[in-house]
C-alpha cells in the first residue's frame, strides 16, 4: 500500500484526502485528518471518488476530426491553425474557455500563453458562472480580491447568516463543521436567507424565505437600521473606511421604509426587524453567501450591500466575523489568483499600464494584452457571430453549463476550430471538437488548488498517466513552443511553473498587492512536493503571516488595498432582475446543485451509489401551483422559457414558494434527451462581473401527457431507438441500467419493437393487460434476469427498487417471476436518503416510528444512516421533525 495526501477535486471546501493504492492500483479513499479544511471528514461525493478512477469513458489518445492521431500531429495542427488565424484576423480571433477544475499550474500557463504571447485578453473561466460577482464586490470594497476570514470564523461566530447558500448540499463538510459548532454552542444563531426551504434550513434558527432577487432591499434596510439605531462602529468608520455617508443615503432613499422592504422582500415586518436586531446584537457575525447572491444581474451590488453592513459595524478582520464568499469549484480561487478571468491580467493584477508593464517585464512577453478580453457570455456570442475563429475549451462542458445552451451548441457547431482538452471522451462539448487533447484526470495530476478560505493545498498524483494522456500545462506549453515561444514555456514540471508563479506574485510587490507567495522562495522541488496546506499571503509584508503557516485572517490591521488604504463603501440602488414573469411565462425558475452530483455529471453520473439519491431530473413546484396546472407528484412536465424547453418529473413540495420553480443544473444529454436546464436560461449578466442570472428565469410549466410511459431495466447498457421515444433518461443503478421512457406515438406491437431494437434472438416472457394499456416483458438468461420492460398509460408503473434487486439473484423463484411479470413487488417508491448504506426513506420512517428514534445518533446506531459521510443528516433531521 502506498499512501498519498491529496485534495478533493469537487467543491470549494477543498477537503484533504488520503488515497491508498495497492499493487493492483486498487484505490481506497479516506479523509485526511491532518487537513485543516475537513479534519478527516468527506461528503458523499468525496467518499465515492474511487469509483471515478476507471478508464471507462476516458479520452486516451489525441484526435483530429474523430480520428486518433499522434501528439505531434495534433499539437502541430493547433499551433499552425493559431498562427494562420492570428495572421489573418488578429489575436482577438482566438479564445480560451477554461475551468475551476484546472490546477493552478495549468491555469497559470493558459493565462500566460493567451495574455502574454497570443496577445489578447480572451481567456475566461467557468468560474465566471459561480463567483465572479464576489470577486467584483471584494475589489470594489477592499481594492483587492481578498476573502477576509476563514472556516474557523464560521464556527466561532455568534451569528452566521447564510445568504443564497444551500451549504448542506453544496459545501457539505463546511456545513457539518457549522452543525457541530452549533451543537457545542447552542446559543450560536443561524439565519438562512433563501427563497427556498433547503436542507440547510434544518439547522437554522430562522429561515427568511425572501422573494427571489430582493436581497439588496434587505441589506440596505439593515444598513439604515444600524445607522438609525446607533449600532455603527464610529471608530472603525473613521479609521478604516470611506464613503459611508453616500452609501447610507442611497440605501435609505432607495430601499425606503420598513413597509417598502416588506413589500419587496415578501417578509413580515417582525421577521425583518428581528433579523436586524440579531445582527446588531452580535459582534461576531459571519455573512456567508454563495451562488444565490452571485448569480444575478445585481450580483456585485448584492455582495457590496452585505459588505457595507460589515464595514459599518467593524465586523471584519477579527475572529468570528466578516463577509465570506463560498466558491463552487475546487480551484475557482486559483483561477482568480493566476488571472484566468478575462478582466484580470495575472496574479491579482489588472490591466493598468503599471501592471501591464510589470507582467510584460516578468514574463518577457512578446505580445502582452493591454485590455480585458471577452467574458464567458460575450465570448460565446463572439464565437456564434464568427468573430472568434478558434476556441480552446479546457476541462469544462459549456454546452450543458452556460445559459442559452442551445446557442452555445450552435456556436461550437459552426466555429472554424474547436479544441477540447478533457479526460472524458463523450460529452455535449467534445461532440463539437475538431481537435481533442486527452488530459490527466484526478489521481494522475500534480499541482495545487486554493479553497474558499485562501488555503493552497496540493493535488498529488497517485496513479500513473494512462495511455497518451498529458497534463494540461504540458499540452499548452507544447503548442506555445510550436508557435515560437520555446523559452517562455520550457517548463519541465508543475513545480517549475509554481516557482515562477510564486516569483511573479512577489515581483515588485512590496505590500502593494494582497496576493503574495514570495515567502515560499526559494522553493525547491522537494519543498513543493512536501507543501502543506497554507493560507496566502505568505510573505513578510502580511502583518500576521507566520512563515509557512501563511495568513489566517486579513485586514486585521484595518489597512486595505485601495488607493486611500481604506475600505470603500459602495452606494447601492436596488433594481429588479433583468427579466420578470408575465402572463406568458408566469413562474420564476431557479437552478442549482443537488446533494450527490457534481457539475455536468461526467464523473459523479457514473457512480450508481451517487445516483440512488436522485437519478432523474425534476422540477420542484408548490402543491397549489401544481394543482392549478393539473400536475401530479412524479408526473412528467415540460418547462419552457423564451429560449427553450426542458422535460422532467414534477416534485411537489412546500419548500418551494408559490410562483417559483427549481430545477437541478447537472443533467446532460448523455443522461437524458431533454434535461439540460440551461437551454431555458437567458444570458443576462451583471454589468460589472459579467456573471449570468441563473436564479431568475421567467418560465411556464405544463403537464406532459404522452401516449405511453415506461421503463426498461437491463443488465447491459442499451442503444435506444429515437423513433417512438420522446422522453428518455439513462440511470446507472447498482446492478443494472435503468431507462425511463415516454412517447407520443406507440408502436403497433411492443413485442416486435423489443425484438427489433434489442435482439431478435431474445426470448421474452410477456404479460399484457390491453384494457389498461399495460405491457410487461422480461428476458431471462439461464434463470437470471437480463432485461425487463414495463409500459403503461401514465406514470403509475411498478416500483423500480424491488425489480432492480432481482438482478442480484442467481435464480428467480416462481414468486419473483410472477412479481416480475405482473409488476407487483413489495417495494413502494423509496428514495434513497443515505447513499453510503443504501437506506431509503421508507425504512427510515418505519424505524423512526417503530423504534421511537429521536436523534441522529440513535438513527446512526440502529440503522447506520448518517454515520459515515453525514451528507444525509439534514434530511434525517427533517424526517425526525
Ligand atoms: Fe469534496 Fe465534499 Fe469536501 Fe466538497 S465537501 S471538497 S465535495 S469532500
Helix- and strand-based class? alpha/beta
Shape: globular
Gap between N and C termini, in Å? 44 Å
Q: Please mark out the parts with pLDDT under 50 across 5 or more consecutive residues, or reply none.
A: none
* Mean pLDDT reading: 94
Strand order of the largest sheet: 5-4-16-15-14-6-7
Helix content: 25-40%
Strand content: 15-25%
Number of separate strands: 34
Ligand set: iron/sulfur cluster
DSSP helix count? 30
Gyration radius, to the nearest Å?
27 Å
Q: Describe the largest sheet.
A: 7 strands, mixed
Written overview of the protein:
- The protein is α/β, with parallel strands linked by helices and 881 residues long.
- It has 30 helices and 34 strands.
- The strands form eight sheets. A seven-stranded mixed beta sheet has the order 5-4-16-15-14-6-7, with helices on both faces. A six-stranded mixed beta barrel has the order 21-25-22-24-23-26. Strands 28-29-27-32-31-30 form a six-stranded antiparallel beta sheet, with helices on one face.
- Helix 3 links the parallel strand 6 and strand 7.
- Iron/sulfur cluster binds at residues 8, 10-11, 13-15, 38, 42-43, 45-46, 171-173.
- Iron/sulfur cluster is lined by residues 8, 10-11, 13-15, 38, 42-43, 45-46, 171-173.
Amino acid at each position: 500500500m502506498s499512501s498519498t495526501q491529496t485534495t478533493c477535486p469537487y467543491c470549494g471546501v477543498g477537503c484533504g484526502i488520503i488515497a491508498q493504492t495497492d499493487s493492483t492500483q486498487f484505490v481506497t479513499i479516506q479523509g485526511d485528518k491532518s487537513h485543516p479544511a475537513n479534519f478527516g471528514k468527506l461528503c458523499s461525493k468525496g467518499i465515492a471518488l474511487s469509483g471515478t478512477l476507471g478508464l471507462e469513458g476516458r479520452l486516451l489518445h489525441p484526435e483530429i476530426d474523430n480520428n486518433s492521431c499522434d501528439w505531434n500531429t495534433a499539437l502541430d495542427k493547433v499551433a499552425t491553425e493559431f498562427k494562420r488565424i492570428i495572421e489573418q484576423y488578429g489575436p482577438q480571433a482566438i479564445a480560451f474557455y477554461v475551468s475551476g477544475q484546472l490546477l493552478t499550474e495549468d491555469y497559470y500557463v493558459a493565462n500566460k500563453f493567451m495574455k502574454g504571447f497570443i496577445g489578447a485578453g480572451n481567456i475566461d473561466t467557468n468560474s465566471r458562472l459561480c463567483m465572479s460577482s464576489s470577486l467584483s464586490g471584494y475589489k470594489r470594497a477592499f481594492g483587492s480580491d481578498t476573502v477576509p476570514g476563514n472556516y474557523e470564523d464560521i464556527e466561532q461566530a455568534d451569528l452566521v447568516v447564510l445568504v443564497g447558500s444551500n451549504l448542506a448540499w453544496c459545501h457539505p463538510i463546511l456545513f457539518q463543521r457549522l452543525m457541530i459548532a452549533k451543537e457545542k454552542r447552542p446559543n450560536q444563531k443561524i439565519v438562512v436567507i433563501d427563497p427556498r426551504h433547503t436542507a440547510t434550513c434544518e439547522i437554522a434558527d430562522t429561515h427568511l424565505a425572501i422573494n427571489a432577487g430582493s436581497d439588496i432591499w434587505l441589506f440596505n434596510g439593515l444598513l439604515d437600521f444600524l445607522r438609525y439605531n446607533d449600532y455603527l462602529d464610529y471608530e472603525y468608520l473613521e479609521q478604516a473606511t470611506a464613503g459611508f455617508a453616500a452609501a447610507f443615503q442611497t440605501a435609505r432613499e432607495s430601499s425606503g421604509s420598513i413597509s417598502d422592504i416588506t413589500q419587496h422582500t415578501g417578509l413580515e415586518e417582525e421577521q425583518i426587524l428581528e433579523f436586524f436586531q440579531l445582527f446588531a446584537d452580535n459582534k461576531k457575525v459571519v455573512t456567508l453567501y454563495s451562488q444565490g447572491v452571485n448569480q444575478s444581474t445585481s450580483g456585485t451590488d448584492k455582495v457590496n450591500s452585505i459588505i457595507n453592513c460589515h464595514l459599518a459595524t467593524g465586523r471584519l478582520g477579527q475572529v468570528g466575523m466578516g463577509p465570506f464568499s463560498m466558491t463552487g469549484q475546487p480551484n475557482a480561487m486559483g483561477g482568480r489568483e493566476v488571472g484566468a478571468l478575462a478582466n484580470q491580467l495575472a496574479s491579482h493584477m489588472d490591466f493598468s499600464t503599471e501592471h501591464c508593464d510589470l507582467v510584460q517585464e516578468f514574463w518577457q512577453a512578446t505580445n502582452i494584452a493591454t485590455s480585458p478580453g471577452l467574458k464567458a457570455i460575450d465570448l460565446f456570442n463572439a464565437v456564434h457571430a464568427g468573430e472568434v475563429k478558434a476556441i480552446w475549451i479546457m476541462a469544462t462542458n459549456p454546452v450543458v453549463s452556460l445559459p442559452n445552451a442551445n446557442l452555445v451548441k450552435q456556436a461550437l457547431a459552426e466555429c472554424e476550430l474547436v479544441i477540447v482538452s478533457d479526460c472524458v471522451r463523450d460529452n455535449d462539448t467534445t461532440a463539437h471538437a475538431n481537435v481533442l487533447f486527452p488530459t490527466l484526470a484526478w489521481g494522475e495530476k500534480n499541482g495545487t488548488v486554493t479553497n474558499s478560505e485562501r488555503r493552497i493545498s496540493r493535488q498529488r498524483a497517485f496513479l500513473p498517466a494512462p495511455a497518451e494522456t498529458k497534463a494540461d500545462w504540458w499540452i499548452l506549453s507544447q503548442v506555445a513552443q510550436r508557435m515560437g515561444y520555446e523559452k517562455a514555456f520550457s517548463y519541465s514540471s508543475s513545480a517549475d511553473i509554481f516557482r515562477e508563479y510564486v516569483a511573479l506574485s512577489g515581483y515588485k510587490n512590496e505590500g502593494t498587492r494582497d496576493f503574495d507567495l514570495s515567502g515560499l522562495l526559494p522553493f525547491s522541488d522537494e519543498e513543493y512536493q512536501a507543501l502543506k496546506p497554507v493560507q496566502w499571503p505568505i510573505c513578510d509584508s502580511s502583518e500576521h503571516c507566520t512563515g509557512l503557516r501563511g495568513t489566517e485572517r486579513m485586514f486585521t490591521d484595518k489597512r486595505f488595498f485601495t488607493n486611500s488604504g481604506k475600505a470603500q463603501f459602495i452606494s447601492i440602488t436596488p433594481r429588479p432582475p433583468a427579466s420578470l414573469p408575465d402572463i406568458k411565462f408566469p413562474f420564476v425558475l431557479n437552478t442549482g446543485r443537488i446533494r450527490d452530483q457534481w457539475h455536468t455529471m461526467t464523473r459523479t453520473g457514473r457512480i450508481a451509489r451517487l445516483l440512488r439519491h436522485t437519478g432523474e431530473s425534476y422540477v420542484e413546484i408548490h402543491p397549489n401551483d401544481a394543482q392549478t396546472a393539473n400536475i401530479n407528484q412524479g408526473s412528467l412536465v415540460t418547462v419552457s422559457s423564451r429560449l427553450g424547453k426542458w422535460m422532467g418529473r414534477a416534485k411537489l413540495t412546500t419548500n418551494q414558494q408559490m410562483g417559483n420553480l427549481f430545477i437541478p443544473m447537472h443533467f446532460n444529454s448523455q443522461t437524458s434527451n431533454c434535461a439540460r436546464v440551461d437551454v431555458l436560461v437567458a444570458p443576462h449578466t451583471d454589468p460589472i462581473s459579467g456573471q449570468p442570472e441563473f436564479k431568475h428565469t421567467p418560465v411556464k410549466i405544463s403537464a406532459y401527457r404522452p401516449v405511453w410511459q415506461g421503463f426498461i431495466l437491463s443488465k447491459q447498457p442499451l442503444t435506444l431507438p429515437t423513433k417512438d421515444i420522446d422522453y428518455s433518461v439513462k440511470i446507472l443503478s447498482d446492478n443494472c441500467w435503468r431507462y425511463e421512457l415516454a412517447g407520443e406515438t406507440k408502436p403497433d406491437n411492443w413485442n416486435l419493437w423489443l425484438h427489433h431494437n434489442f435482439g431478435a434472438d431474445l426470448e421474452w416472457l410477456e404479460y399484457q393487460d390491453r384494457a389498461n394499456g399495460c405491457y410487461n416483458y422480461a428476458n431471462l438468461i439461464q434463470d437470471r434476469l437480463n432485461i425487463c420492460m414495463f409500459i403503461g398509460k401514465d406514470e403509475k408503473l411498478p416500483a423500480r427498487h424491488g425489480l432492480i434487486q432481482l438482478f442480484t439473484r442467481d435464480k428467480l423463484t416462481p414468486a419473483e417471476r410472477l412479481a416480475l411479470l405482473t409488476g407487483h413487488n413489495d417495494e413502494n417508491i423509496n428514495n434513497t436518503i443515505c447513499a453510503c448504506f443504501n437506506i431509503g426513506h421508507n425504512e427510515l420512517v418505519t424505524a423512526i416510528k417503530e423504534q421511537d428514534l429521536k436523534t441522529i445518533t440513535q438513527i446512526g446506531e440502529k440503522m447506520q444512516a448518517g454515520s459515515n459521510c453525514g451528507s444525509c443528516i439534514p434530511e434525517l433531521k427533517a424526517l425526525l421533525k
